[in-house]
Backbone:
């Protein structure tokens, strides 16, 4: 299967600081990557779709100036939470899309737990 | 109406039981139907998928799709404590995924 990694796996930061999370597809190229947010005992909430070489597409209600996404290569997308506040504390999960047999598969990273103090 | 509806549970069963997890959907354009398993504090992992209607079996897991009734099922036979996780259905059109809320399953030894 395809492997997607995320770094860091967990991070604690002070309110007002910025945090960068990396998502890498290790053994395949991903034109498209997705960023999700998950609160405890809730389902995945799609935040944005990241396309290599172009601007990310954000879901309604997600502040693009707060959650900066960069997809600089076919194997790396980054999510930067700017001026983080305690309400941004959550589990952030990325996924990378691979086209196989004419359809798209999504492979998820292990997630990054962000705690903002 | 949500694109995908899934009972969040929680569902608790004894070890060895047969588990049935279900989703309903509204979009007739869905062609592919995925099931993901998510352990606590981990990212989801693809468990299995089916294309269009029919059944697909993989070990103790069977995925079933009935497009006429827009109903998706995942059956787990001889359930094990290691199956305790949240299971998410994810139908998609080939381009866009939609995720269910997930069903939390606990298998009691």
Residues:
């Amino acid at each position: 299967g395809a492997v997607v990694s995320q770094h860091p796996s967990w991070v604690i930061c002070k309110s007002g600081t910025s945090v960068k999370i990396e998502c890498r597809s290790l053994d395949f190229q991903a034109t498209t990557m997705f960023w999700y947010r998950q609160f405890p005992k809730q389902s995945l909430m799609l935040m944005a779709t990241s396309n290599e070489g172009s601007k990310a597409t954000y879901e309604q209600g997600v502040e693009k100036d707060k959650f900066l996404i960069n997809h600089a290569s076919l194997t790396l997308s980054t999510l930067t939470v700017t001026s983080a506040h305690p309400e941004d504390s959550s589990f952030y999960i990325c996924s990378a899309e691979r086209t196989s047999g004419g359809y798209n598969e999504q492979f998820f990273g292990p997630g990054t737990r962000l705690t903002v103090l | 109406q949500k694109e995908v509806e899934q009972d969040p549970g929680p569902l608790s069963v004894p070890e060895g039981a047969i588990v049935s997890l279900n989703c309903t959907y509204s979009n007739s354009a869905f062609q592919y139907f995925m099931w993901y398993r998510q352990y606590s504090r981990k990212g989801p992992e693809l468990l299995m998928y089916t294309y269009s209607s029919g059944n697909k079996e993989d070990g103790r897991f069977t995925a079933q799709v009935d497009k006429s009734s827009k109903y998706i099922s995942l059956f787990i036979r001889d359930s094990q404590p290691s199956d305790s996780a949240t299971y998410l259905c994810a139908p998609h059109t080939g381009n866009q995924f939609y995720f269910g809320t997930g069903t939390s399953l606990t298998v009691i030894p």
Remarks:
- The CA atoms of residues 55 and 70 of chain A lie 8 Å apart.
- The radius of gyration of chain A is 14 Å.
